[in-house]
From TrEMBL:
Residues 10-325 form the Enoyl reductase (ER) domain. SUPFAM superfamilies: GroES-like, NAD(P)-binding Rossmann-fold domains. It comes from Acrocarpospora macrocephala. This is Oxidoreductase. Gene3D superfamilies: Medium-chain alcohol dehydrogenases, catalytic domain, NAD(P)-binding Rossmann-like Domain. The keyword Oxidoreductase applies. Pfam families: ADH_N, ADH_zinc_N.
Length: 331
């Protein structure tokens, strides 16, 4: 079969579809024929050699996918053979014709979602749900600030915060066009962070108090400035650093001085070691997909032969929603 790999770290030009063995499902695993996979910021950082804990190349990339179950390993229950599934595979390998996955990391794909939507749904929406409710403890009517709301994770946060009864939703994006899109998706206040100081906007909107909940995935200066946006007792939940940079400001005494809490997690770690933490999010998100409370936004779908262009598209921050690659058409 073909699998997407790179032999050395670098730009999109290092990517290639290599011939690799079809994996055998182990105990508690399913073999899935992949229809489509999503491109994440983590994929870009892995390829560039900037993702902590990533294995040394070459290895088959990809985590978020949709496909069809074609075989079961010993003791594997869950979706039967022939079921269309979607999910996030913590060990990777989804950018291939076939991949094995623990039964705890894939779920029957809702009929309401296309393959492209399903491929990009699990990671952003399960992460968003856990950030909002499990870690963020959103209460109905509370104001929320969402960064990078035009992206896959941000748009999922925006939809789910609205569905879960948030108060005013302040959301940031990197252009006027993106700001208009997130306003259409339900943001009460949309901020183009390239032309306005989002911290000043938050203070204006909240009368200087700040927001009780802040959902952050950018890192760097955005994370540093976000600490000025929290109300006393506020909660900041960080799930990534698409900027590739950490904080210069966040220290233990920062929490004491501001009286706030900061938490973070990665969905992959939870899925690999504590899948029971994810199950409530799976149930809530599937319900939202079924009742129309949420619908994954797909920015663009690329054929497998154009996977390098998909990486470039996401890296250029041109994606409004999810960037997806289909597998079957070109391999």
């Amino acid at each position: 079969m073909k699998g997407l790999r790179f032999a050395r770290h670098g730009g999109p030009e290092v990517l290639g579809w290599d011939e690799v063995p079809v994996p055998e499902p182990g105990t508690g695993e399913l073999l899935i024929e992949v229809r489509a996979f999503a491109v994440n910021w983590a994929d870009l950082l892995e390829r560039a050699g900037r993702y902590p804990g990533a294995p040394e190349p070459p290895y088959v990339m990809g985590h978020d996918l949709t496909g069809v179950v074609v075989a079961r390993g010993p003791g594997a229950e869950g979706p039967p053979i022939g079921t269309r599934v979607f999910g996030v595979i913590s060990k990777g390998g989804a950018a291939a014709e076939f991949v094995t996955a623990p039964v705890t990391q894939v779920y029957p794909a809702p009929a309401t979602l296309s393959d492209a939507q399903a491929a990009g749904a699990a990671g952003p929406y399960l992460t968003a749900d856990a950030a909002i409710l499990t870690m963020g403890r959103l209460r109905k009517g509370e104001d929320v600030l969402i960064h990078a709301a035009a992206g896959a994770y941000g748009s999922a946060c925006l939809q789910l915060c609205r569905a879960y009864g948030a108060g005013r939703i302040i959301a940031t994006a990197g252009s006027d066009a993106k700001a208009e899109r997130i306003r259409q998706w339900g943001a009460d206040v949309a901020v183009n962070y390239t032309t306005r100081d989002f911290a000043e906007v938050v203070r204006e909107v909240t009368g200087g108090r700040g927001v009780p909940l802040l959902l952050e995935s950018v890192g760097g200066e955005v994370l540093d400035r976000s600490l000025d946006c929290l109300s006393p007792g506020g909660r900041l939940v960080s799930v990534g650093a698409s900027s590739g940079r950490g904080s210069q400001r966040l220290r233990l005494h920062t929490l004491f001085e501001l009286g706030v809490s900061v938490s973070g997690f990665t969905l992959g770690t939870w899925l690999a070691h504590n899948p029971e933490l994810v199950r409530p999010s799976v149930e809530r998100v599937l319900q939202q997909f079924e009742n129309g409370g949420a619908a994954p936004v797909v920015a663009r779908v690329f054929p497998a032969a154009e996977v390098a262009a998909a990486h470039e598209f996401l890296a250029a921050r041109r994606s409004v929603g999810r960037t997806v690659v289909t597998v079957a058409e070109a391999l």
